[in-house]
Amino acid sequence: MAQPLVKKDDDRDDEAEYSPFLGIEKGAVLQEARVFNDPQLDPRRCSQVITKLLYLLNQGETFTKIEATEVFFAVTKLFQSRDIGLRRMVYLMIKELSPSADEVIIVTSSLMKDMTSKTDMYRANAIRVLCRITDGTLLTQIERYLKQAIVDKNPVVASAALVSGIHLLQTTPEIVKRWSNEVQEAVQSRAALVQFHALALLHQIRQNDRLAVSKLVTSLTRGTVRSPLAQCLLIRYTTQVIREAATTQTGDRPFYDFLESCLRHKAEMVIFEAARAITELNGVTNRELTPAITVLQLFLSSSKPVLRFAAVRTLNK
């Protein structure tokens, strides 16, 4: 038994030596980055160099202010290439370098041009990058485009705008809160991810207003949520409202019927989320608990290990 284990380890060591990133040095990669300035751009070569730069950054390698600035300005020249793969790498590089306010101006016009492009991939990624590197002043200039993107027909573009809104809510909440109407419209989207991101953003906008959250839950528990991911979020928000209502109301538990109805949902993730929510309610009665326990017991005989694991852990609690 010992011999195969040693051999396996030897093989693994041999494989590690063939890593394309093994032994790369920052100085050498910065020298390679000069290809960004070539009159005739080689998209494949440029993409390889950006990949190496991203690898160094993600490994914790620090770039001096001069090095970061030089790379940033060189990368901006790649906007002249029409290669879609290279453009995606450029977006990633700009986000990772996190340029200062002075440098952002250089790339803003290119990103704004991409944000209104006919290519959906350009629009989605440009929105993500702009919202990552922008400040409040620039945000007011592109706010109109972001509002339009939230209700865009393409789900990738809409999700990019909504996720950007979630991040921007931490830095410029007064601007994002003005998008409530568009976000509410996105909550009705047929695209699963768009509805999920829209519901998350709408809840964050309203989270400090208990009455607004209660109204949101009341309107959505009537069956307008199609996305299983959004349904799981709604179950969590509903549970929050139930806990808060428990301190002020007596008698029947509000929204319990909705949680119980989710136990009959088509998606297993929704069924489990509802069962877990019911078992964690304060002062839950045997009558309320029985349907959730029954569902969890059925999961114990599932062919999916993750469902069996989740059921055992929840039942144990």
Q: What summary fits the major beta sheet? A: none
Instruction: Determine the mean pLDDT.
Output: 85
Strand count: 0
Helix content: over 70%
InterPro entries: ARM-like (IPR011989), ARM-type_fold (IPR016024), Clathrin/coatomer_adapt-like_N (IPR002553), Coatomer_gsu (IPR017106)
Protein name: Clathrin/coatomer adaptor adaptin-like N-terminal domain-containing protein
Pfam families: Adaptin_N
Domain Clathrin/coatomer adaptor adaptin-like N-terminal: 27-317
List the helices and strands and how they pair.
Layout: H1 2-16, H2 26-32, H3 43-58, H4 65-76, H5 84-97, H6 101-115, H7 120-133, H8 136-150, H9 155-168, H10 173-176, H11 180-187, H12 192-206, H13 210-220, H14 228-246, H15 256-262, H16 268-279, H17 286-299, H18 305-316
Helix pairs in contact: 2-3, 3-5, 4-5, 5-7, 6-7, 7-9, 8-9, 9-12, 11-12, 12-14, 13-14, 14-16, 15-16, 16-17, 16-18, 17-18
